[in-house]
Amino acid sequence: MDLPPSEYDEKGRRINRTLVSNRIKTAKYTPLSFIPKNLFEQFRNVANLYFLFLVILQCIPIFGVTEPAVSALPLIAILVITAIKDAFEDWKRNQSDDRINNAKTLTLENWKNVNKPDVNGGFFRSILGFFYVMAGVENKYAHAYRASLAKRKVKDRPRRGTEDKLPLTELNFPASSASSQNNEEQPIQQPHQGPARHNSKFSMRMRSNTLRSMFKPPRKPYKPSKVRHSVLYRIDSTPAPSSRRASTVHPALLPPVKTSLEGPLAANGDVRWKETAWKNISAGDYILIRNDEDVPADVVILSTSDPDHICYIETQNLDGETNLKVRQALSATSEIASVKDCQHAEFYIESEPPHVNLYQYSGVLKWQIDQPAEHATAHSGVAHEKTEAVTYNNILLRGCVVRNTEWVIGVVVYTGDETKIMMNTGRTPSKRSKMAKKTNPHVIANFVILAVICIISSVMDSVLFRSEGSARFFDFEINGTNASYDGFLTFWVTLILYQNIVPISLYISVEIVKTLAAYFIYSDIDMYHPETDTPCIAKTWNISDDLGQIEYIFSDKTGTLTQNVMEYRKCTINSVKYGLGTTEASMGAKIREAVEKRQSKHQVDMEEEEIGDDSTVHNNNESAALEAAKREMYEKQEQLFTNEHVGPNPTFVDPKLYDDLADPESAQATLVTHFFMSLALCHTVIAERPDEDNPNRIEYKAQSPDEAALVATARDCGFVFVGREANTVHVKIKGESKYFEILNVLEFNSARKRMSIILKPHDSNKIILLCKGADSIIYERLCEDFGSQTELQAAQAELRETTSSHLEDFANEGLRTLCLSYRFISEEEYRPWNKRYLEASASIYNREEKIDEACEAIETNMLLMGGTAIEDRLQDGVPETIAELAKSGIKLWVLTGDKTETAINIGFACNLLSQEMDLVIVKGQTREETSAQLAEALINTKPSPDLVERKRALVIDGTTLKYALEPKTKDSLLQLGMRCDSVLCCRVSPKQKAEVVRLVKKGLKVMTLAIGDGANDVSMIQEANVGIGISGLEGRQAVMASDYAFAQFRFLRKLLLVHGRWSYIRTSEMIMGFFYKNIVWTFVLFWYQIFCQFTGSMMFEYALVTLYNLIFTSLPIIFLGIWDQDLSAKISLLYPELYRMGLRNDLFKTWRFWATMFDSIYQSAVCFFFPYMLLVGGGVDPIGLDQNGVYEIGTVVSSIAVCVANFFVACSLYSFTWIQIGISALSILVYYAFVCIYAQFNTFIFAGHSRVFATGMYWLVFILTMVACYIPRFVALHILHQYWPYDNDIVREIELVQKKSRDKPSKTDDGEGMYDIKLQER
After folding, report:
1. pLDDT-derived band of residue 261, with 50, 70 and 90 as boundaries?
2. Rama region for 151: left / alpha / beta (φ>0; ψ in -120 to 50; rest)
3. pLDDT at residue 669 is higher than 50
4. In 641-684, which residue ranges form alpha helices assigned H by DSSP?
């Protein structure tokens, strides 16, 4: 159909002539934009701008730089190295983009998509489009250029015969469908006589010369309501056939045949399915997606190969969930099944604007109903429009994969950057490391020092302008006509002279080091998870040193501390508990009871041994007892009925269940049957048979692991969900097959917190509603008015009370609970409600709200059946990791949506809470209660100098937290949290998680880390200084928003205690080393100005100044930042207290920076004055050449300065490896090699300087100067190690003194105790 007139302007031209391309571009640069954009990015760095300014200064002849090109070499090298790194990273992104953009899918060819604007590819437009394409800009000119390329390819392609026009090489089609793919007047066969098609040949035509036409019945009134609800039938018709018609793509009734196919030829040419690159797909295109193919754009489902018009998709690429989901084709388009159908269908879709919500879509499909010819005289011009709502369930999002469905025909609605997955790949907030921020004041301090010495030189030059001396003969005519002007020139000359005081290579060196640190983290086999083939991925490379300074960790619980693999453990049915076994959290509950007992009796000494003995005995006996009970349980099941579908690892064990089922006449047996039947029926899971050799094995794929666990337990107990066909559910109840018709499914969402299903048994006319959800939600909707049924009312009242008590017991054991309820619905009540529900589902506006209102109306007056309890087990290593992190000085806050009791018990099970802790519980329902409880808690936790400080843990729920985070009380909450070692926030929302992180980060000015696995953790992850995503079962939103991603919580231990601590120490030492070596070199030049009347003369060859930072001293300090280790990974994990060095920021304090500055100034003085005093008298070499010239002494001083800078790196090393020693030696040798080679050229100031190194006088001066430089430093280091040692100094000495094998280091009791005491004192 044509576009409406509103899409054209007054001149008949398209208003919007440009569609969003499906080409994606995650790369940062294009060939045209790389150089300007990369230079802009690099010159945003102030240091690079400073050096660019200096290069420009040196190009001015008056400042006396003879070779300005040489002076630009360091800046050029830095820019080129950075550009190469950025280009390589972007090249990898471009490769990924090309792979995606050139992937193939099937679209309809040789038909007109009216949504595509006509592109006039003139020569000028093509040339302009070429530059736009190179610049990465998508507009009409870029489209014109690509269209011209496509036309050129078609023109150059040789003409092929019809036998070559076979684009579908692997599509399944029946041989019998060939007859329908020609131009014969043959109708598409249907089980019942179908209607004629618009614009197609009728199967039965009316003829005017027949007897039938002479005696036609009178015309009936035109009734639009009789027109079939299909875009293929746009005239009044007979009732639609009840079954699906045969498909020309893949009929459901015939077995698939692998064959090639040429699509049916339309009257206007060859219309067929053709392979098309993803980048060439446009909105409005028909698209055919086959099984196991990726969806290339956001697509509305028109029809599928399934008789029920559904398809299955996997959304792992979108949200990480591997379980299959069901999507439904639109009913109005469900009969589109061939190319001819696609041609003849006329409809349009009104779609909402693109937005980021992955789980919401609202649109409407509209098509015109035309008046049939036989009514033309009676109803001339009568026509109307039919509509159908398009919802989230009717759309396939880009990134999904079609599974278990032969084919899907759809129409593209969003492409490229407008698809939901692309809109959700927004960049995470830009993060800078704490050390990078603290480096800036040090760089500014260097600028201040530079300004000071330049001003001193300028002033002194002005003062000495008229003084006597020979210095003016060596200033290369850089002098002014008066003292003031001469001082002004000297300021700029010395600015060039002292340029190395600002470390030009610092930033690129830090980038290199952090990039390799990210690679080491990725390559660490200890943080690799083989089950999911997941390494630790560093997504933000520039914050690795922050991992060594984390003070607060904020963690989600479900899926982060726990496995998110649910195991059905217990249930309560009609006031009877079922389920054996002890959970991890129940052991935590026993510890909690002991703690509460101790607190209530004010006992200081806890009888831990009794608890430990009981726990040990219980753990030893539990496994054997459970195995025996499981065998007994399934023996009793076999006596009652045969269950062929028992899973390989049942988790629910209680033989008493089958004792109650043994008497089928008892009320309890009936209620147990109804309870487990509800579990087998009330769900949206998909049944799969993965093993062809064992058809009895059934596995369930569900949208949540809770639901899969419930249905799997019902299967193991003999209530088997076999499968679903159309609207019929097949279940086996104790070996007997039963069928139910599904009338409605009221799906779960976060607002409803429940799901319901309305169904009718095939052997009964009763309509039943089954509902499961959170206890608080279900209890609100239970029946209150029982009328005259007093016995039922009393039974339900007792059941509610008992079930509530049982669910509380389950929660205290750390189990996740659900309630089950039901009601019967009469036909009189169901019909009007169903009409209201269908209207709400078809609503175009406020669809979700109307559906929720309809659900609320039917989910009332329900009867309670019981409740379930599911265990989410802790991940491996979680208790040990939390205990180690606590020893390291890190405070852990757990933010969870669980109940308070459940969270507390899990806290004890995972070592977040310990027996020594006092629990501070704040639970207020109003603003006033919250404020009062916080004030009381602050009084009770006020530190007292007379008492030993006790450990505390704060527990607060979401309602209280809402009031506590308000401006008046947030400071009290923060102060209370600081006094506690652990904090547990329960029933919190995603927004509250981010608010808590922001409160601590900004209130305490500390480094924070957030870790989670679900979409509800994204805001918290992005708010923290470091965000970590767990690649678990709740999707990949957390991973996509994170800075680091791995599979298990336990990997956090090594990431922080090893890699984080190493990175902090290495980066600290490296930055200090950079400042040190630059100050040494700069002040050597400054000291020389005393002897040249501050004229800005240089005592070095300028090439040495240029290469000092770039070649002679850069590699050793970089390799220190890459390889150095104070302690091995094993020893670092043995002593988690070492991490406190980063918390205290021991190695990057301001005083240490200034101590390094003063040390470097002292060493620069030694480097200059010792050679000057020792050689000024005129040392003579064996052949009589002098060595006391200014440039000869300059060469001697420069060689010593280079060696001093490299020896400083050796003094800072913790581990002397061959690679570190080799790089330091190589850097020094490169200097000597350069001087010896460069001295062979006949230059005025440098020729023959290699002879300086051939005399004994030089090496004597070298040794004396080096010793004088480092004596004070070694003395200071010795004193610090003896009286104020760092933590790693203590541990290194312990390990050395113990003389134990490094492969198995251990701590003696005495050594460990001494070490812990020292750390506490520090």
Report:
1. very low
2. alpha
3. yes
4. 656-661, 667-681
Catalytic residue among 556, 775, 957, 1017: 556
Query: Two tokens at 141?
Result: 């000119």
Q: How many residues does the chain have?
A: 1322
Residue type, 377: T
CA 1183/CA 351 separation, integer angstroms: 93
CA distance linking residue 996 with residue 970, whole number of Å: 10
- Amino acid sitting at position 295: V
Cα 192 to the chain's mean position, in Å? 53
Gap between the Cα atoms of 383 and 370, Å rounded: 5
* pLDDT tens digits along 1181-1190: 666 666 667 7
Three-state helix/strand/coil letters over 678-741: HHHHCCCCEEECCCCCCCCCCEEECCCHHHHHHHHHHHHCCEEEEEEECCEEEEEECCEEEEEE
Are 389 and 842 within 8 A, CB to CB?
A: yes
- Across 172-192, b (16+ Cβ under 10 Å) vs e yields bbbeebeebbeeeeebbebee
450 and 503 in contact (C-beta within 8 Å)?
no
Assign 140 a pLDDT band (cuts: 50, 70, 90): low
CA dist., res. 1008 & res. 1029, Å (int): 14
Residues 6 or more apart from 1090 whose CB is under 8 A from it? Answer: none
- Whether residue 1140 has pLDDT greater than 90: yes
- Is 556 tagged catalytic? yes
Q: Give first-to-last CA distance, the chain, whole Å.
A: 80
- 10 Å CB burial of residue 621 (0-12, 13-18, 19+) is exposed
SS3 letters across 1062-1117: HHHHHHHHHHHHHHHHHHHHHHHHHHHHCCCCCCCCCCCCHHHHHHHHHHHCHHHH
Rounded CA gap, 420 and 454, in Å?
Answer: 57
Token pair for residue 1007? Answer: 């480094």
